[in-house]
Specification:
Layout: E1 13-15, E2 21-23, H1 32-49, E3 57-61, H2 69-72, E4 78-83, E5 96-97, E6 110-116, H3 125-135, E7 136-147, H4 164-173, E8 176-183, H5 187-210, H6 220-239, E9 247-248, E10 263-270
Parallel strand pairs: 3-4, 3-6, 4-5, 6-7
Antiparallel strand pairs: 1-2, 7-10, 8-9, 8-10
Length: 280
């Protein structure tokens, strides 16, 4: 796909008149907080390491419906999306059907890899990370996100939860260095999303009892009880010193992270020099 191709409308990510990207809260109101944090961390990653109108090539690995296409398309001349044929995310717009366990690309084919909320669904994350490393150019970078405290989803293909130390270890075993790791909020984010989850469950159960579809998701009540609290938290998250800052690789230690978080984002880099994995 080339930069001139049209961008699908009505997707998760919207570009505002001021040029800034934000999540369309109407698409997935119950996960607005998580989606917005991933989006803002991705934008920061792209703006830091790449230039708009660049000539590089990006792989969206586990792309699903390609929700971040409007964002990364501005930075690369060519983008390729891949996901498994049986993905539940509406894969009609994919470029390639395949698996991360065996990527159908040559060595060093990409300058950048994007992999959001995918590794928990891979039965062999070590093999998948090695494949990502293989197709990434030397000096290339990878942006990934993964959940931690999160309900089971896409059952039965929900296998793992990763700590920052697991991310660093899997990356090192694949010849990648973790440049930085960020959290998707702390205890407050977890508490908010847990209450939101229970509230949504209540309305779903009520709908089942009433025997019809609940109008809740499209109502003012949704905005007041689901969307607004998440918007308030996001405002605090962006303003609080250090809250949105990623921890650099050499500082990955217990004291640098909240013990409770919704998940992590990570920036990985493929270096010419070998990366040594920590062993017991």
């Amino acid at each position: 796909m080339n930069r001139e191709d049209p961008i699908p409308m009505g997707e998760l990510v919207i570009k505002a008149a001021n040029g800034r990207f934000h999540v369309d809260e109407r698409q997935r109101p119950d996960s607005l907080l998580i989606d917005e944090i991933i989006l803002q961390e991705l934008v920061a990653f792209l703006e830091r390491y790449f230039e708009r109108g660049g000539s590089g090539r990006l792989l969206d690995a586990g792309a699903g419906s390609r929700p971040y296409l409007p964002v990364y398309k501005e930075f690369f001349a060519s983008v390729v999306s891949i996901d498994i044929p049986g993905s539940p995310h509406g894969i009609a717009g994919l470029d390639v059907a395949g698996t991360l366990h065996r990527l159908p690309f040559g060595d060093g084919a990409f300058d950048c890899i994007l992999c959001t909320e995918v590794f928990e669904h891979l039965h062999d994350p070590f093999l998948a990370m090695k494949e990502c490393s293989r197709v990434l150019k030397h000096g290339g970078r990878m942006f990934m996100s993964t959940p931690f405290f999160n309900p089971l989803h896409e059952i039965p293909h929900d296998y793992y939860r990763f700590t920052p130390f697991a991310i660093r270890h899997i990356a090192a075993c694949s010849g990648l260095r973790v440049v930085a790791i960020g959290q998707k909020g702390g205890e407050g984010a977890f508490a908010l999303m847990y209450v939101t989850y229970l509230w949504m469950r209540f309305w779903l159960k009520l709908s089942e009892r009433l025997g019809n579809a609940s109008p809740f998701l499209g109502s003012l009540l949704t905005r007041l009880t689901i969307v607004l609290p998440q918007r308030l938290y996001l405002g605090l998250w962006k303003r609080r010193d250090g809250q949105g800052d990623a921890v650099v690789c050499d500082e990955v230690s217990v004291g640098k992270f909240s013990p409770i978080t919704l998940g992590y984002t990570a920036v990985l880099e493929k270096n010419v020099a070998p990366v040594v994995a920590e062993m017991e």
